């Protein structure tokens, strides 16, 4: 005579829930050895202990419940090995995927630390950047039109693929046209400039992230500074400082300025911790 285990006893032996055993019964994966016709109570045989253990192990290595049903039906060594090999292949794919995410997160943490450390000793620094590729919105957006600005950022984000394409990255930015520089140099009150300027929004991309045509930001030296917060007046006053620094130190400005979000709102609720870096391409005046 088989020793009968109640559903609660069986669940406790294998450290699963009673609801799990009820579900396995419902889908035909593990039927009770006996169901009392009067009370409806489910009872299990101790021999089913090993079957439940196999189910748990197969779930642990990634088998779906349907795959487990196939595994437990008409088993033979060849069929079992084939199913195990399929599971192994899936696990290797997941490992590669997680390793890729790990590398991305390591790079992004490193970028944040490098950005923070670069301004420990000075508010304005000279940096050298490699060539960078980007995609850009077709039309510029007014700085004063926040709704269009946010829709523009979303449009660019939807054009890239890959793992964690934007989260905690230093990829979003916009160009500040060189045509504005003289006006900014001469301004003392920036509040009235907000509606006049147009923002050419871009997203830095790797080759594999986008099937869109990309443009290139040239490599070379950039005079850089930063500011915290999302207030445009802060950006303009900081840009003025950077322009004055270039003028005073004889740096020749060779193109539009870039404003790149270095620490974004995906990492902080504090607006002052949302840091932007302004980068102006320069060549050193050797005269």
UniProtKB/TrEMBL annotation:
CDD domains: HTH_BmrR (cd01107). Residues 4-74 form the HTH merR-type domain. Residues 74-108 form a coiled coil. It comes from the Bacteria. InterPro entries: DNA-bd_dom_put_sf, MerR-type_HTH_dom, MerR_fam, Reg_factor_effector_dom_sf. The keyword Calcium does not apply. Pfam families: MerR_1 (PF13411). Keywords: Coiled coil, DNA-binding, Repressor, Transcription, Transcription regulation. GO terms for molecular function: DNA binding; DNA-binding transcription factor activity. SMART domains: HTH_MERR. This is MerR family transcriptional regulator. It comes from Brevibacillus fluminis. The lineage of its organism: Bacteria, Bacillati, Bacillota, Bacilli, Bacillales.
